[in-house]
User: Fold this.
Amino acid sequence: MNTTESEMDQNTVLLGNNGVGPGDRFVWAPAGQFVMGSTTNEVGRYDTEGPQTTVTLSRGFWMGKYEVTQGEYLAVVGKNPSYFSTNNGFAEDLSRPVERVNWQDATNYCALLTAQERLAGRLPAGAAYRLPTEAEWEYASRAGSTTRFSYGDDPDYTELTHYAWYTANSGGTTHAVGGKLPNRWGLYDMSGNVWEWCSDCGSDHYTGGNVTDPQGPSLGLCRVIRGGSCDYYASNCRSAGRDDCIASGRCYGIGFRVVLAPNQP
Assistant:
């Protein structure tokens, strides 16, 4: 995944909170095409992962290298709602992913961060922080792969422990972000630790065929969550794995990561 010179010239000014920027807390995902969903014979597959759909993403974007941490959320919003915090008898570690945030909390964080960074002069016109679409999330998770995980098929989940916190190795708790190996594009915890909110409303199937910049259904009480979590099974950590949750729900297994998107339409 090589950032072209013109893309870099266009986007190097996009700096985030506390000096966050490309190569530090974000990874550039160039415009491209991929096949979303899973084959009917993929091990661990759910019916909601089909039919496979060819997706074209016409614009590149910066994807958060890590899930948003409790410390980052606290700095922007002024509170830490997380279950796995000192308020619940856990040792203080604000580098754990924030959780027990609903979809509105996550989108509010993005809006507040955007406003703060614009006021500080660190965002050009048209750039904004937001949640990834489900298609952007899977594109970044796959990182150019077509296998069950970005690192391979791993049918017996023997390698997953090196990449994800899930039921078999988490001890039933979240862990500091970035503690496992990254995927091919340098993104951490795309599998496990906490589920991650996406912008799309939930759906029980894809459209199939060929689509460009899909946004998901226009209406719905639920929003898509991706990636699995510390209290879910290995199969949920696959690149195609998906679920949804009522948008107002706050669960200790759900957090989010942000996209820094230049030149939004």
Q: What stands out?
A: The chain is about 15% helix and 20% strand. The two ends are 24 Å apart (CA to CA). Confidence is low (pLDDT under 50) at residues 1-22. The domain at 22-261 is CATH 3.90.1580.10 (paralog of FGE (formylglycine-generating enzyme)).
